Amino acid sequence: MISRRNFLKSVTLSTTGIATSLIIGTLPVLAKKSKFFTGLKSGYGAAGYDVVAYFTQKQPIKGKTQYETTWQGVKWAFSNQENLDKFTASPEKYAPQYGGYCAYAVSKGYTAKGDPNAWTVHDGKLYLNYSDQVRGLWLSNRDSHIKSANQNWPKVLN
Predict the structure, then answer these.
(1) Which residues lie closer than 8 Å to 119 by C-beta, 6 or more apart?
(2) What DSSP string describes 56-99?
(3) Alpha carbon of 61 to those of 50, 52, 126: distances in Å?
(4) I want to staple 53 with a disulfide (CB 3.0 to 4.6 A). Which of 26, 32, 57, 139 is the partner?
(5) pTM over 0.90
(6) Model confidence pLDDT, tens digit, residues 8-61
(7) Nearest Cα to 153, choosing from 121, 91, 93, 111?
């Protein structure tokens, strides 16, 4: 015959096991990456750099907090009101491809941080890479990498 104490201990262990299984079972869902890489500056797309400036000024320029908007749950900062207005009117045109993750990494089937100083604009789209060295790899066969990255995106977020 099982004592009340042993019964309660058994129930507690079973409940703990079930709770642990439920938590572990949800880890893949919890581990899903965000659609936009915001790791370099928490909450900011492109690490707070002005994504319109890549197109208009052909260089990375840090955004200012007075020219900020939120799009797709991410903050985007701009160097001036004109760039903020351009982005607000057409955010898909200016937002980095693959959510600002390294375009080369996405082409290879995984994600890595995108550095706003390792960038390329090609065919009217902004691509960020992990580093200048990785950007060189990206550029060595850019069109093929874009094709692969387009096939992998957004599956690589899972």
Answers:
(1) 54, 60, 126, 127, 128, 129, 135
(2) HTSS--B-EEEEEEEETTEEEEESSHHHHHHHHH-HHHHSPGGG
(3) 6, 9, 14
(4) 57
(5) no
(6) 444 344 333 433 333 333 334 445 678 999 988 899 999 999 999 999 999 999
(7) 111
